[in-house]
Amino acid sequence: MENSKMIAKAALELLEKMEIVSVGIDGLGGAGKSTIAEEVRTELEAAGVHVVLLHIDDLITPRAVRYNNNFPEWECYYVLQWRYDYFTEKLEILKKGGKTEIELYDKDNDSYITEEYSTAGRTVILTEGIFLQRKELDGSFDLTVYIDLPENIRLERVLCRDRYIGNDEEIRAKYEGRYFPAERRYVEEYSPSLRADITVSLNS
């Protein structure tokens, strides 16, 4: 919770200079991004700030696009999974103080549902998700946070969390084949823990 308070404080300081602040909470799979984002939202709302919370996992391509047998599985995840152009288009509307409908991916039906989001007055747009410091998202965030947690601990977490994939062996295979190679590429390419405005280093 102390980390969340620190992030909220940094966002509030930015709100003294601008009416709408965009914050990206970056981190690899199982790092705890969504939990911290919810805690930050609670802190900001307690301070009277309107918060819009976006999850990058809601802004992904259909299954037929992101699972393409013409590419290695990790590359499908790293390159084909994300609707970055769509996300940045919608984010820019919100950053300017407006209202927009956003298509959110419904994994149960491999389709999209639409929800309306708006910004008005003192607002923080919180976006949580993986790979938020890639070049495709340059300029999207006024404050970037990176949640750093070792891979072995993250694997322990996802073995408990991602039971929809299957048993332990199936989850390990999925992460070693698809997710971890893409994450390692991201870390090698962008050094996100060094680039972020705030890095939260966890060990459990």
UniProtKB/TrEMBL annotation:
Start and end residues of each Phosphoribulokinase/uridine kinase domain: 23-187
Name recorded for this polypeptide: Uridine kinase family protein
GO MF: ATP binding; kinase activity
Xref: Gene3D superfamilies: P-loop containing nucleotide triphosphate hydrolases
Species this chain originates from: Ruminococcus albus 8
Upper taxonomic lineage: Bacteria, Bacillati, Bacillota, Clostridia, Eubacteriales
Organism superkingdom: Bacteria
Alphabetical UniProt keywords: Kinase, Transferase
